[in-house]
Amino acid sequence: MSVVDNAIYAGGHRMEPESLDQTYDLLRQSGGMGWIGLYRPDDDEIRSVAREFSLHELAVEDAVHAHQRPKLERYGNTLFVVLRPARYVDHEEVVEIDELHVFVGPDFVVTIRHGPAPELKPVRGRLEGQPDLLKMGPEAVLYAIMDQVVDDYQPVLRGLQHDLDEIETEVFGGEIEVSRRVYQLSREVIEFDRACRPLVEVLDALMAGFDKYAVDLELRRLLRDVRDHAVRVAERVDSFRQLLGSMLTVNSALVAQRQNEEMKRLSEASFEQNEQVKRISGWAAIIFAPTLVGTVYGMNFASMPELDWAYGYPFALGLMFVVGLILYAFFKIRGWL
Fold first, then answer.
1. Which segments within the chain are labelled E, that is strand?
2. N or C: at which end does the chain have fewer Cβ atoms within 10 angstroms?
3. What is the pLDDT of residue 48?
4. Cα 52–chain centre separation
């Protein structure tokens, strides 16, 4: 079976049954508190525990299908709590959200994990090292689990903060792929926000029942402390979302600025090219005029006008010079030269 830990606590001390059936029998006899930890159980295993502890059908259905948002529901004298623990995978720079279901009854706690996080073995060890806290019953176990979930959010915050610092450097460094990374991190932050923010509502609902269910005063203080930490986590995540939005705006402005500068550079290059073309065209026209005159007088025809004229040669040179001078003056006035 998928039972990762199975124990009964009586007077703050641990007893280890050999099977779930023995756990059920000892609970009926000893009057202690049972804590059964399941990891990715199949439907039959969940329903077996549900039959023994008379868990509500709707809560069992949620536990079977998983993919629930963080919430707290009361079914008679049984609490059903859904938590979304998170962990930061450093080598992939992603936030992975897992799911934990907790059934809390008068004399039992059943935890159903659908992912690696959180690791509940340290939670058991910490509680077993504090018999006075463990004597407070199943509510103390629920507190310890929620405290561990909130504590595990801290490495996630540090990982996200590190990613934000890197992205900020890339934005002002002009990295091309930074927009994609901003959108990817925004998605991670949104998913993390969906996991941690409803936890504040869950703790508020627990605190609302302090008086009605006569919760121990020390346990009330501990749960308020967990709520304070959860609120701070939610505030940090909210600041991350705002910062990512600002980064996206700044990056868009910088990209637009770089595009404008590139367009300006291309426009200046095009203008300079046009000026060069004008100069080349102007000098080509000036050179073309005397070339045309020289070409005409270079034809080998016997009956050409002015061919035998004594001033024909200086006239041709003068004509070439005058036409070239006129063209030069025209292009100079037009700003082509």
1. 3-10, 13-15, 33-39, 71-75, 78-83, 86-89, 94-97, 100-104, 108-113
2. N
3. 84
4. 42
